[in-house]
Amino acid sequence: MKRLEGKVAIITGGARGLGEAHARLFVEHGAKVIITDVLEEEGAALAESLGDNAIFIKHDVTSEDGWKVIVETAEKHFGNITVLVNNAGIAGKFANVADLDFNEYKKVMAVNSDGVFLGMKSVIPSMLKAGQGSIVNISSVSGLQVAPGSPNAAYVGSKFAVTGLTKMAALEYATRNIRVNSVHPGGVKTGIVDPKLFDDPKILEPTPLGRLAAPIEVAYVSLFLASDESSYLTAAEYKVDGGMTAK
Fold first, then answer.
1. Which UniProt keywords apply (predicted)?
2. Which of 17, 31, 46, 218 qualifies as a cystine partner to 190, CB 3.0-4.6 A?
3. pLDDT in tens, 95-135
């Protein structure tokens, strides 16, 4: 069964890691997918490998003008947008508050928080035309509590901001058939984590399941939220953390 048949989805930060897992899974389940990323070579190669149901557009999520191009291109190729996965994000440098450079702080906030806001602001009008929509904002367990391994205040602050933005948009558009939810991964085997640390006992200790998640395990949660199977779910937080936040 193709769970996203007839859906048109934008996935930011889609060239590799979590975004790539989302793009592959969504196409497999019948969606038309627009992959966006600043990583042009990887993104273009991924879209080509996925065939006619995927296109890649180079995109900086902090650019409002860039978002306009994404929406116009998506509508031209595939029709009105019905799914948005705000996945693009950066961690920034490890630093205490007093040692965190303000420009570094603003950079992390711009990608992780402003990018989510601009994505929703830009895509919701297309969803309103479609008469439906599901927005999945990829946050972090650090958007619920200061989790082990949180790199800096900018990262934590930006992920808490995503949690709040999600709830606000969900309430504003609940009567317009647009649902907005957030997904909160713990440790995931992506480029943010040094591969040499994937099996480090110090990294794994906070997680009761005793391992990091594979990107596909997060993508399956987003697949459910993007599909009509989750039609009564909005303004909610979905932890994909192996039990970390229960400790």
1. Oxidoreductase
2. 17
3. 999 999 999 999 999 999 999 999 999 999 999 999 999 99
Q: At what angle do helices 115-130 and 153-173 cross, to 10 degrees?
A: 20
Domain ranges of the chain: 8-246
Give the type of residue at 195. Answer: P
Fold of the domain spanning 8-246: Rossmann fold (3.40.50)
Strand 133-138 to strand 178-185: parallel, antiparallel, or no bridges (unpaired)? parallel
Q: Is 232 a catalytic residue?
A: no
pLDDT digits (tens, 9 = 90+) for 16-71: 999 999 999 999 999 999 999 999 999 999 999 999 999 999 999 999 999 999 99
| Whole-number Cα distances in Å, 189 to 20, 35, 103, 114 | 13, 20, 28, 25
Number of Cβ atoms within 10 Å of the Cβ of 190: 19
Given the residues 155, 173, 232, 238, the one annotated as active site: 155
Tokens of 243: 């039990």
